[in-house]
Write a structure and sequence with these properties.
The complex is a heterodimer of chains A (383) and B (476). Chain A is built from 14 helices and 17 strands. In chain A, β3 and β4 form a beta hairpin. The radius of gyration of chain A is 21 Å and the shape is globular. Helices cover 38% and strands 18% of the residues of chain B. In chain B, the strands form four sheets. In chain B, strands 15-12-14-13-17-18-16 form a seven-stranded antiparallel β-sheet, with helices on both faces. Chain B has a five-stranded antiparallel β-sheet with strand order 5-6-10-8-9. The longest helix of chain B is centred in the last third of the chain and has 18 residues. Chain B is globular and about 70 Å long. The model of chain B has no long low-confidence stretch (mean pLDDT 94). The chains are: A alpha+beta (383), B alpha+beta (476). At the A-B interface, β7, α7, β9, α8 and α9 of A face β9, α8, α9, α11 and α17 of B.
Chain lengths: 383, 476
């Protein structure tokens, strides 16, 4: 199924009686547990409105991210939430779409400074599971007219509706960027440094600790600032004082390359070894890594978002989901299984189970928006 | 403004209701004397008043839970109230409701500088959240004009913004977690000190739901390190159109000031007379503020003033001292007070795409002439959030209705050019009946379905947000 218009999409879902797997570019690897006929949104394509002076862009959901980035680059603007490209990690061949980015609320290292995909999403059009076309939000920066279904749709992985159009806030590409690189700190000291950097007024736009044996023998820390040239030079120098230790400063394209590597989790690309994406409070990251090590979960780790986002790559084929989820639950965080061998994927819920009332509310919302239970069924189920 | 007919059966049960509430709350936390409930008869939308059945002032999440469970069982509507500063009537009672005020719940529960958050009870005022972390060099970014008085509970209910959200975002972008009490009394934790949701982004839909999904009793808020310094520049133009183009050019240049405020001639004149800010005599005034170290401020201002000069300003005033900065902001910050001195006014809140500013200001001026009511404009230009102030005389028969009619026309215009009815004040009762201008029946049905799931009996703040005819079947 590949609708070419929103009307066709609505007709398809009105008539659909059995499950559909919703596919944008097919790069997010979310199909482990979903069966059904594929609904390809690639026919809904194109940028329908772009106003650089108003920092807004409206696109059909199936538009490739690359196409949008090219349009923005012509006016020196960008998607500031720095969406990750999952292809390296999932091994998929497709082209990521903006609908996929929104549906999975995909953000990158800059999320700690500017917010997530959901924070840049100004409006949506979508077709729910009964084939009803729903609009919410719009294309202006501030909008509190009625409930915010825009946020709800971001990260709903297609389970409440199939996105047909999204409108986004975009930002200018800054004049300059620079990254402070330090090495050799263990997780505890490294994350403490990152948190200290985040507590300065120097507007850090990326803060990552990369564990030993990931990009080099030793652990490495990277702290990024972006902005006007003079300002970047000033802030990176002040940060070097705030976070003492031997360091080097890299700028421009060299700095950008370091962050593409973090954004796309390049060190953990390839193969099907279990890969977790874990969100905790930044200062809890070192303790979590230690307790997992103590429980015999051998791993390599990248702690982005000053420690708040842990990419955990496991040796072997087992995702060790019981241990990982219980340790993460103890810290009140959540762990998403992004990649695993297929048998493990089928057995382990992709998303972290939530409290009973939250699961009940989520189930209630799905029953309302997808009364036939046909949109990526089971994808977000707790078990 | 139409409100639902109070449920006579609920009103008749008042003695039983009050007795049961007294059993679960301290004696002074249940207010049922009509002389005292009058204090809760309206919020900042003072044109509409109605005393509630009673008011309760719980001190803990547990007490909120017990109150809601009782009201749920007895089928009594509940209207949550923060500080009562809503300009949209969000906390307006009905005669058959219990007002649930969170004012006594104002404690700081936890501050965590390493993870950059603060957890507070939601009756705490917006400004006192920043106050709690200020000495350590941090602040809470959303800054609604009412920040001295308004409560975090209301900020979350309305997804409040402020002058500085061009850079820092609105409440929803700074909210990490909440404790939510559902109408049946159930206590739910959503989010926390970490980022992103493990499942559906319920936090995103709770924020801005105008107290209709649950009562938020505690909130985890993002705090940020204070910038090293800030400085405004004042720029005057002889036409709204040119000022609008200047705003657009600055934004496109890649500079992101923390605030871009816009005032038109009627507003400039009134505020200058009132405050003595010394504003120039011109058609349009911009106040643009940037942040950073001294060198960073100068770097940004150099670019901004170069763009501003290309548009041939009648005045360009860079602040050279803290005193001058305060003077530049003085008129803007006293704008609403100034308007209140000369007239009654109604403050609108529509948002428009930034590039339609000149068109919209021109059309508002035409409408103002047609209706015979003056309109002054003061607003957040960087994000297109307008605040047209319609001046009228509340003591003159028919003027309120005329003012409301003009307000409705202006909001319809905002939607027509691609904007929305409300950017930061909320729908409440004020814009409730205009919702079908922006959304169709299917769009509203989808929103109401959310409330069905959270509050199946539609007891929480039920007469707000959705046109009464549209929600009639659900309100029972």
């Amino acid at each position: 199924m590949k609708p070419e218009t929103e009307v066709e999409l609505a007709e398809l879902l009105q008539g659909a009686a059995s499950p559909v797997r919703i596919k944008g570019g097919g790069t997010r690897g979310a199909f482990g547990r979903v069966t059904g006929e594929t609904l390809d949104t690639g026919g809904l394509r194109g940028v329908s409105l772009y106003e650089p002076g108003a920092l807004t862009l409206v696109a059909q959901a199936g538009t490739p991210v690359a196409e949008i980035e090219a349009v923005l680059a012509e006016r020196n603007q960008r998607l500031a939430f720095e969406p990750m490209d999952h292809r390296g990690v999932t091994g998929a061949m497709g082209a990521p779409t903006i609908g996929g980015v929104v549906a999975a609320n995909v953000s990158g290292p800059r999320r700690i400074q500017v917010g997530a995909a959901r924070d840049f999403l100004l409006g949506v059009r979508f077709v729910d599971g009964a084939g009803r076309v729903v609009r919410n939000g719009g294309r202006v920066m501030k909008n509190v007219t009625g409930y915010d279904l825009v946020k709800l749709m971001a990260g709903s992985w297609g389970t409440l509706g199939v996105l047909s159009e999204v409108s986004l806030k975009v930002l200018a590409v800054p004049q300059a960027e620079a990254t402070l690189v330090l090495s050799g700190q263990d997780a505890r000291a490294g994350v403490a440094d990152l948190c200290r950097a985040m507590g300065t007024p120097f507007d850090v736009s990326g803060a990552v600790w990369i564990g030993p044996g990931v990009v080099g023998e030793e652990a490495e820390q990277r702290i990024r600032v972006e902005g006007l040239r003079g300002s970047v030079a000033y802030r990176i120098a002040r940060l070097a004082e705030a976070v003492p230790g031997p360091h080097r400063i890299v700028e421009g394209e060299e700095s950008a390359a370091l962050w593409r590597q973090v954004r796309d989790v390049v060190p953990f690309a390839g193969g099907d070894a279990p890969l977790w994406r874990i969100c905790v409070r930044p200062t809890d990251a070192p303790a979590l890594l230690a307790s997992l090590q103590g429980a015999g979960v051998a791993h390599r780790a990248i702690c982005d978002w000053a420690g708040g986002l842990i990419w955990l790559s496991l040796a072997g084929t087992s995702a060790r989901s019981d241990v990982v989820r219980s340790e993460v639950s103890a810290l009140r965080g959540h762990a998403t299984l992004v990649r695993a061998p297929s048998a493990e994927r089928a057995a382990v819920a992709m998303f972290h189970p939530q409290s009973a009332p939250l699961e009940r509310i989520a189930a209630g919302l799905r029953a309302r928006f997808d009364p036939k239970g046909i949109l990526n069924p089971r994808l977000m189920d707790p078990a | 403004m139409e409100m639902p007919v109070p449920d006579a059966q609920v009103v008749a049960r008042k003695p039983d209701l009050v007795a049961r509430l007294r059993r679960v709350l301290p004696a002074d936390a249940v207010i049922d004397d009509p002389a005292e409930t009058r204090a809760y008869e309206c919020d900042a939308l003072t044109a509409y008043r109605c005393a509630p059945l009673c008011a309760v002032l719980p001190s803990t999440t547990q007490e909120v839970s017990r109150v809601l469970a009782i009201c749920h069982e007895l089928g009594v509507p509940v209207v949550p109230r923060g500080s009562g500063t809503s300009l949209a009537g969000g906390a307006l009672p009905t005669a058959d409701c219990v007002i649930l005020g969170v004012a006594r719940m104002n404690a700081v529960i936890e501050t965590d500088y390493a993870n950059r958050y603060i957890r507070v009870q939601t009756g705490r005022t917006n400004l006192s959240v920043s106050g709690a972390v200020e000495a350590d060099g941090f602040f809470y970014a959303p800054d609604p004009s009412s920040q001295l008085a308004c409560a975090i509970a209301g900020n979350i209910a309305m997804n409040s913004g402020g002058a500085h959200c061009l850079k820092y975002g609105v409440t929803t972008n700074n909210l990490l977690g909440v404790t939510l009490v559902l109408m049946n009394g159930e206590i739910v934790e959503v989010g926390g000190g970490h980022l992103d949701a493990p499942g559906l982004d319920l936090l995103g839909v709770i924020c801005g739901s105008e107290g209709q999904l649950g009562v938020v009793t505690e909130a985890t808020l993002r705090i940020l390190p204070k910038p090293e310094g800030a400085r405004p520049v004042l720029i005057g133009y002889d036409s709204n159109e040119v000022a609008g183009r200047c705003v657009s050019d600055i934004i496109e240049s890649g500079i992101l000031p923390v605030a871009i405020e816009f005032m038109d001639r009627p507003c400039i004149r009134a505020t200058d007379d009132f405050s003595g800010a010394g504003y120039p005599d011109c058609e349009a005034l911009l106040i643009i503020e940037v942040e950073g170290s001294e060198a960073e401020i100068q770097e940004q201002l150099a670019i901004i003033t170069a763009i501003a000069r290309r548009h041939d300003p009648v005045e360009l005033r860079e602040s050279a001292s803290a005193e001058e900065s305060a003077k530049i902001w003085l008129g803007r910050k006293s704008a609403f007070g100034a308007m209140g001195q000369i007239n009654d006014y109604m403050c609108l809140d529509g948002t428009i795409p930034v590039n339609t500013l000149p068109l919209v200001l021109g059309r508002i001026a035409e409408m103002s002439r047609t209706f015979g009511l003056d309109v002054a404009n003061v607003f957040h230009a960087g994000d297109g959030n307008m605040h047209p102030l319609i001046l009228f005389n509340a003591n003159e028969e028919g003027q309120l209705e005329l003012c409301e009619a003009l307000g409705a026309e202006i909001l319809k215009l905002c939607v027509e050019v691609g904007g929305c009815l409300t950017g930061e004040h909320g729908v409440g009762i004020e814009k409730r009946d205009l919702m079908l201008v922006q959304y169709d029946a299917v769009d509203l049905e989808a929103q109401m379905a959310i409330k069905d799931v959270f509050d199946a009996k539609w007891l929480l703040n039920p007469a707000k947000v959705f046109p009464l005819a549209v929600s009639a079947g659900r309100r029972g």
